[in-house]
Amino acid sequence: MRYVCIVVLGLVLACAAFNASEVGDRFPGFELKDLKGRTVSWNQSLGKVVVVNLWMSTCPPCVKEMPMLQQLQKKYANRGVVVVGISADEKAGTAEKFAKKLGVRYTLLIDPNLMTSESEQKKFGFVGLPTTFIVDCTGVIRKKIVGFTSSEDIEKSLPGLLQHCP
Length: 166
Description:
This protein is an alpha/beta fold. It has a single domain (2-162), classed as Glutaredoxin (3-Layer(aba) Sandwich). The protein has helices at residues 2-17, 60-76, 92-102, 118-123, 151-155, 158-162, and strands at 31-34, 39-41, 49-55, 81-87, 107-110, 131-135, 141-146. The chain is globular.
């Protein structure tokens, strides 16, 4: 039994080591559809500080964060910060309904495989919702927050990152 526990722990640690989205890693490239069905590529965000938020409409803390993220987008947009939400909802209409209700206008993308695909979960280092990444202008993850976060927690990372952007 003890041997089995050690093997399981080793496998868990090995899986964690292969997550592509941890602090210091490059944020994984992607091409996802926005709410209007247009393809958006991660490469379009390079050169800016990006706050990426993984969320789903059935996740109460996720929905609670969205107005705060909209305020961050409004406050920092002219300084080179972009907020991108990646919804794990199956249908764009579901995410769009919540966005309209909450007055969210930052970029929202749909990744219906996030909740069901192990490879997609590993790509984003997904362990739960919400998950927020702060990515510098070169595409490197500088902070990863699993669970509900506040604007203060995000904002304290921004000045240092903005100093190093063109």
